[in-house]
Structure formats: structure tokens, C-alpha cells
Design goal:
The complex is a heterodimer of chains A (100) and B (256).
Chain A (H helix, E strand, L loop, with lengths): L3 H21 L3 H25 L4 H31 L13
Helix pairs in contact in A: 1-2, 2-3
Chain B lengths: L2 H21 L8 H21 L6 H22 L3 H21 L3 H25 L7 H4 L4 H19 L16 H10 L3 H11 L2 H22 L26
Classes of the chains: A mainly alpha (100), B mainly alpha (256).
């Protein structure tokens, strides 16, 4: 039976992979997919801590986290569609005018 | 965690970072094969380190390593695949593997909710937007990533900082038995304690009822906001000024 550390390491790996994708990809949709990968890592962590403390709070927290993920996906994809209609491109570099 | 194990883990994470770096889309000849081989090697090393800690592997342990491998490899493909549609499909694989890991931790309701919400609703939205914004061929921003070396370094630093401390946590006091109880024992157990679903329902409806209401309002606000944004008329700037090279953008005004 794997203990708590194995689950935490898997969650951390998923979070770090999502971070790398978020920092390096240029397609706006793939950037938001990377944040969803980070969400998966956090869900694993929350459930692992719920098991560690024999308490349901971690799982309830993960449930609310799913709500936040749904809200984030809806709003972010709405903005992506808006940006795409404006520039005709999904490139994040097309919106780098604010860079000094 | 002994220092030897920590340094072993760090070196494995470094090898994995090299593999991810090779797999990220860049200029020049693609090094997919080398990246894939190095990535599989690092995952195998990580699994060996984790498996060496388990003295008696049972069915749960085997399932854990199976689904953990699937989750990590699919997540690596999500961030390295040049086509967004395949990224989204690999993300479905990540969601399913994570749901299996949640089942192994006795979080059955969350596992079902994860598959329903992510694989059922969110992924359909993503695929819809990908199809809506599809451009012919493979655009350059999917084939070249931005600063892959620095991104991999940031991920490696995060992993090294987090995973070195994970071992210091206490183990669960009495690990819950998932290992295939008999039917009689399962019936007795289900009569003794509440199921996972009713426990979560009780907690959400009593202790977290205010948070539940706020979550409902948040969903409503997001829905109104998304509708308002998508109905907005925007000026198309597609044929406006040509894009400036990097470093020149935003420097139209003479400095003081």
C-alpha cells in the first residue's frame, strides 16, 4: 500500500509538468490545458492529505476546486475566443505589446 | 528521507527535465526519439526508487504504479505535443488516471465527479474552442516553444524543493484496507460506516453550506460573464500593423 509520500510526489510531478507547459507553450489553449494539469496535481494532494488525517475536509476542498476549475475553463475559453476573433491567431506572443 | 535518496531523486528529475526539454517543440531538427527515450528512462528510475520503498507489493501498489505512470507520461505528452487536439485527448488520459488514483485512496465520489466534469464537460469545451479556432496546417506558435530551457529549469527547481520534503510527513495511522474485501465483509463495512458519497454530502451540506452557496453564485457570475464576453463585438485587427520583432514592440515613443 503506497503511503502518503508517493501520492504527494505524483501530485508534485503533475504540478511541475503543468508549470513547464504553462511557461513554455505559446498556444493560448494549450496554456490553459497546462493549468488543468496543475489542477489535477493539486486534487491528488488534497485527497492524499484527507487520507492522512482521516478527515473528509480534503475531499470537500477538492470538490470546490472542481467548481473553480470549471469557472476558470469557461471564462478563460471565452476570453481566448475573444482574443482569437480580434487577432486571428492563438499565439500568446501576438499580445506582447505591453512588454517593455 | 536520507540524503542519498534525495540526491538520487534530484538526478532523476534532472534527467526527466532533459527529456522534456528535448521533446518541447523548438527550432532545428526534432529530437523526439532521444527525448522519449530519456523521458522513459527517468520515469523508470523514479518508479524503481518508489518501488524499492515498498516491501510487500500488493494489488493496490501495482495499480498505483500503473496509473501513476500513465498519468505522468500522458501529462508529459500534454505539454509537448505540437497539435492542440492531441494535447486535449492526452489530457483525458491524465484525468482518467488521476481518477483511478483517487479510487485507490477511497475517494470514489470525487473520482466519478472528476471524470464527469473534466472528461465530460470541460474537455468538450476545450475541443469546441480548438475546432472553432482551427487554422490550416501547423502554425509556427505550436512548433516553437518559448524559452524551453528556462521553463524546464523552473519546473526542476519546484520539484526539487517540494519532493525533498514529502518524505518527512507522517504515514497514515491505520491505512484503510482497499485490498479486495469479500462480499460479506463489504456489506458489514458499508452498514457500519457511511459511504464516501454520503460523508462528502454531509460535510458539504452542513459545515460548508455557505461555501456551497458561494460556489453556486460564482458559477452564475462566470456564466453571465462568459455570455457577455462572447456577445461583444470586436474590431478585427488581423490586417493592422505587421508584428514587430521581439524587443521592438511597445517602443514607439522616444525615451525622455
Amino acid at each position: 500500500m503506497p503511503g502518503i509520500a508517493e501520492y504527494l510526489i505524483i501530485g508534485a510531478i503533475l504540478f511541475a509538468l503543468g508549470l513547464v507547459g504553462f511557461l513554455s507553450r505559446r498556444n493560448l489553449i494549450v496554456i490553459f490545458l497546462s493549468t488543468e494539469v496543475m489542477f489535477q496535481g493539486v486534487v491528488i494532494n488534497a485527497v492524499a492529505f484527507a487520507r492522512l488525517h482521516h478527515h473528509i475536509d480534503g475531499q470537500a476542498f477538492a470538490l470546490f476546486q472542481l467548481v473553480i476549475a470549471a469557472v476558470e475553463a469557461g471564462l478563460a475559453l471565452g476570453m481566448v475566443v475573444l482574443l482569437y476573433r480580434r487577432r486571428g491567431s492563438l499565439d500568446a506572443e501576438a499580445w506582447s505589446l505591453m512588454r517593455g | 528521507m536520507t540524503p542519498t535518496t534525495a540526491y538520487l531523486l534530484y538526478s532523476i528529475f534532472a534527467i526527466g527535465g532533459v527529456g522534456i526539454y528535448l521533446l518541447l517543440p523548438k527550432a532545428g531538427k526534432p529530437q523526439t526519439l532521444a527525448g522519449a527515450v530519456i523521458g522513459v528512462l527517468s520515469v523508470a528510475g523514479l518508479l524503481a526508487v518508489l518501488a524499492a520503498r515498498v516491501i510487500l507489493p500488493d494489488a493496490t501498489t501495482a495499480y498505483f504504479y500503473l496509473f501513476a505512470t500513465i498519468a505522468v507520461l500522458a501529462a508529459a505528452r500534454v505539454i509537448t505535443h505540437p497539435k492542440p487536439v492531441y494535447c486535449a485527448l492526452y489530457f483525458v488520459l491524465v484525468v482518467i488516471a488521476v481518477a483511478a488514483l483517487l479510487v485507490l485512496q477511497r475517494a470514489e465520489f470525487l473520482a466519478v465527479a472528476l471524470i464527469m466534469i473534466y472528461a465530460g464537460a470541460i474537455l468538450v469545451t476545450y475541443l469546441f474552442v480548438i475546432m472553432l479556432a482551427h487554422q490550416g496546417g501547423s502554425p509556427v506558435y505550436d512548433r516553437r516553444s518559448r524559452e524551453p530551457l528556462l521553463a524546464v529549469l523552473a519546473g526542476f527547481l519546484l520539484m526539487a524543493a517540494v519532493a525533498g520534503r514529502a518524505e518527512d510527513l507522517p504515514q497514515p495511522a491505520s491505512p484503510p484496507t482497499v485490498a479486495v474485501p469479500t462480499a460479506d465483509a463489504q456489506d458489514a463495512a458499508s452498514q457500519q460506516r457511511d459511504s464516501n458519497t454520503s460523508a462528502i454530502g454531509t460535510a458539504v451540506m452542513t459545515k460548508y453550506v455557505v461555501a456551497l452557496e458561494i460556489a453556486g453564485v460564482l458559477l452564475l457570475v462566470a456564466m453571465v460573464g462568459a455570455i457577455a464576453m462572447s456577445r461583444k463585438k470586436v474590431a478585427v485587427e488581423r490586417f493592422a500593423a505587421p508584428p514587430k520583432p521581439i524587443g521592438q514592440a511597445g517602443r514607439e515613443v522616444e525615451p525622455y
